[in-house]
């Protein structure tokens, strides 16, 4: 019914990254996604995918120095060359691992008086990435992220994300619609989803406020999934949540919400 893709950066963290592929298969999934695969070699990830008959449907571009607090480098004029190198690294991983969609994080805005220059740089970099991605039939994604979870993040508004997509004007630049972030940013999940449906390239889910699995918070995911079905959304639904309890036990909602055992 739904092509769920379990996020291996947030789920099955009880075991090392490469072992999570087997965990996903054992839990009944055929599709996975992850945030940043670049600490692991392409052959090691490919082997884990092949051994478990899994498809990797989404990765992120390298975000800069994550441990130092960077959350993307696309808005910084002084890092354009570094960003371009990250685009080619993302393409290398995507092509080798048969990934078709890549999310580009924007970055943390140092101060509001730098916002105009950051926006110009962001648009320039997105256009570069989208053009390079198009050569390989790849989709570039941007995602609004709420201010509470990521203070100072540049892209925190879905309307601004839409304006940027329209300004870049590349057909393979799409919106990553995370129901968790949109609920915390503005709510009105279904009307917003419908309004921007034509721009949505990937969907992710988690409940609010804890960012745990569906059924642990305020979002009516029964209705969300019904609406997604009604809209005939053609893509994957990424499970980018932090499990409340053991990872293997965090999928009960699939049965409870009437989706049977179909997780692929």
Q: What can you tell me about this protein's structure?
A:
The chain is α/β, with parallel strands linked by helices and 264 residues long. 38% of the residues lie in helices and 13% in strands. It is built from nine helices and eight strands.
Summarize the main sheet: 8 strands, parallel, barrel
Spatial strand order of the main sheet: 1-2-3-4-5-6-7-8
Average pLDDT, all residues: 95
Alpha-carbon distance between the two ends: 8 Å
Evaluate the radius of gyration: 18 Å
**What's the SSE pattern?**
EHEHEHEHEHEHHEHEH
- The gross shape turns out to be globular
Question: Which tags fit this structure?
Answer:
9 helices, 13% strand, eight-stranded parallel barrel, alpha/beta
Q: What's the SSE blueprint?
A:
Elements: E1 4-7, H1 17-26, E2 31-33, H2 42-51, E3 55-60, H3 80-97, E4 101-103, H4 115-134, E5 139-142, H5 158-168, E6 173-178, H6 179-185, H7 189-195, E7 200-205, H8 221-231, E8 237-239, H9 252-256
Parallel strand pairs: 1-2, 1-8, 2-3, 3-4, 4-5, 5-6, 6-7, 7-8
Helix pairs in contact: 1-2, 3-4
How would you briefly describe this protein structure?
The chain contains nine helices and eight strands. With 264 residues, it is an alpha/beta fold.
């Amino acid at each position: 019914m739904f092509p769920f893709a379990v996020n291996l950066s947030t789920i099955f963290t009880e075991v090392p990254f490469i072992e999570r592929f087997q965990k996903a298969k054992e839990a009944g999934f055929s599709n996975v996604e992850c945030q940043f695969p670049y600490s692991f070699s392409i052959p090691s990830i490919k082997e884990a995918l092949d051994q478990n008959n899994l498809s990797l449907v989404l990765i992120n571009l390298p975000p800069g120095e994550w441990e130092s607090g960077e959350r993307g480098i696309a808005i910084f004029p002084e890092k354009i060359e570094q960003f371009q190198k990250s685009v080619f690294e993302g393409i290398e991983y995507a092509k080798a691992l048969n990934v078709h969609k890549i999310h580009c994080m924007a970055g943390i805005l140092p101060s509001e008086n730098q916002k105009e220059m950051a926006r110009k740089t962001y648009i320039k970099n997105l256009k570069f990435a989208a053009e390079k991605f198009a050569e390989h039939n790849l989709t570039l994604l941007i995602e609004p992220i709420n201010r509470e979870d990521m203070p100072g993040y540049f892209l925190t508004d879905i309307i601004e994300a839409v304006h940027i997509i329209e300004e870049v004007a590349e057909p393979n630049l799409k919106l990553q619609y995370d129901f968790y972030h949109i609920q915390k940013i503005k709510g009105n999940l279904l009307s917003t989803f419908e309004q921007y449906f034509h721009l949505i390239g990937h969907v992710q889910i988690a409940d609010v406020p804890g960012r745990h699995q569906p059924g642990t918070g305020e979002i009516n995911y029964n209705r969300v999934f019904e609406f997604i079905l009604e809209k005939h959304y053609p893509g994957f639904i990424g499970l980018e949540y932090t499990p409340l309890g053991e990872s293997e036990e965090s999928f009960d909602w699939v049965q409870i919400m009437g989706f049977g055992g179909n997780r692929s």
